[in-house]
Specification:
Strands 1, 2, 3, 4, 5, 6, 7, 8 and 9 form a nine-stranded antiparallel sheet that branches. By secondary structure, this protein is of the alpha+beta class. The chain has one domain: Pnp Oxidase, Chain A (Roll), CATH 2.30.110.10. 18% of the residues lie in helices and 46% in strands. The mean pLDDT is 91.
Length: 146
Amino acid sequence: MEILDSNRIMAISTVRSDGWPQTTLVGYANEGFTIYFVIFRASQKFANIQADDRVSVAVGQEPPDMRLAKALYAAAFASELKDSDSREHAWRVLARKHPNLLGRPLPDPAITAIMRAECRHVSVLDYGKGLGHIDALTVTAGEVEE
């Protein structure tokens, strides 16, 4: 949770229609292992998720010393939030993490989609526990299994 909670940008990989992966950076906010982000409907990323909801995310920072490296990688299912209550909730969560959104109205749903990614398989890299140290977790119905 420390890694997700202390960062605001993630790499998200989607599956293109030709089978190749596509990775882009997006701002995000999270509640536990539920991640919210906003994308344009006209984007390839949105089309990719509509066709195949499986995504991978990566979150981390460059440490001053590689022995301090920490990162989170997750396989997740992504979906658009369509009902107004869910969209408003996600927007509030995003605005808390991204102050530039405070006071701004919800984005136009004709142009943008507010998305939710539910993490399922999570790997936590923590070189502080030894070079190459990874803890693997599975998230099912909000519960974490190690």
